[in-house]
Design goal:
alpha+beta, five-stranded mixed beta barrel, 5 strands, 36% strand, elongated
Length: 85
């Protein structure tokens, strides 16, 4: 099935919105050092569930109150990529 230009533009807009909602900046609310997970709060008032923190072999975890960048799959799973501090 061939898409029209209008359908392509609509699909591109949908994909752009999904990507914009996938990468977010938030603030660390809590840390579970044993599981190496954190919970994040965003400016819209929403909060994450437990999110894994990408590790580079150092065991680094962000501090409560620290600004971080996170990425999310549409399933809701997410990871903290790093700190903005």
């Amino acid at each position: 099935m061939t898409q029209t230009n209008e359908q392509r533009i609509e699909e591109l807009g949908k994909n752009t919105r999904q990507l914009e909602n996938s990468i977010r900046i938030g603030t660390i609310l809590s840390i579970d050092t044993e599981r190496k997970t954190v919970r994040v709060s965003w400016s819209d008032g929403n909060q994450s569930g437990d999110m894994k923190v990408l590790q580079n072999g150092t065991g680094w975890l962000p501090d409560v109150g620290e600004k971080v960048v996170s990425i999310h799959k549409t399933s809701g799973d997410g990871w903290v990529l790093g700190s903005l501090s």
